[in-house]
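Thread: "does anyone have the structure for this chain?"

Original post by V.I.:
We have the sequence but no experimental structure in hand. Need at least a predicted one for the grant figures.
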Amino acid sequence: MSTITAGIDVGSTYTKTILLDENQKVLAKDLRHTGFKLKQVARESFDACIASIGKKESDIDYIVATGTGRHLVDFKDLAVTDITATARGTTHLFPKTLTVLDIGGQTMKSSRLDENKKVLSFRLNDKCAAGTGAFLEKTAKYMGFQTEEISPLLSTSKEPVPISGVCAVFAESEVINHLSLGAPPSDIMQGAIESLVSRALQLIKRVKGEPEFTLVGGIMRFTTMADSIHKQLEKDVNVPPEDMVQFMACLGAAILAGIRLEKVGRTTEAVAQA
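Reply from O.Q.:
Generated one for you, tokens below.
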């Protein structure tokens, strides 16, 4: 039977929606800034997806919401944590994943999985915004660059400038000081990347991370981030292709929707036969 499931990830910075068919093929996806109206942006993202394939809400068989704003999605069938959803999404693309590192706009998370794709343990960053993507964006802004200019800037770095502050306020002070001393913006930005990597490795150690490692989240759009983690871990790392680095929780939610739909169908069938 043909089915369509939806995963909606209402994150602190971006909201994403994915539609999957019964074979877990992506039919549509949408990404937009979350802003302050979480309920509204979730609806708009979902509506954009179903409109793009000529469907309406009643054509969607099951909807799972995840992310910080998951409970505000009033048209969902089920809500799951982003830790659970991300585990499912990453193991869909990389089945042997045992450790997941997820760096988003406001959070950094590391999870340790078992062979059945279940989360054994996880840790969150506890060093304020200096351990998140927001720090990179603020660093770029201080130097007069937009977020979309970060990647080209990083590609010209020769030697990273050390940034050691464990608090965003102190780290930003270091950035300003380096600028006043004439350090190239590209090297300061790479220094900010290395600072994030240092915090990421601490989280991985805290969950007793083991290979395979999969790196997800919006920060992985910047290839130097994954490269730096790979070098310091001295292990191979998986990175989802293209923009899918930002859709792992969303993808996982849509997959879990399909699993839940199948269970509901079996239960309904059993009741009908009783």
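V.I.: this helps a lot. The chain has two domains: 4-79+248-273, 86-240.
O.Q.: and The helical segments are 38-52, 82-93, 133-142, 150-154, 168-180, 185-206, 223-233, 248-273.
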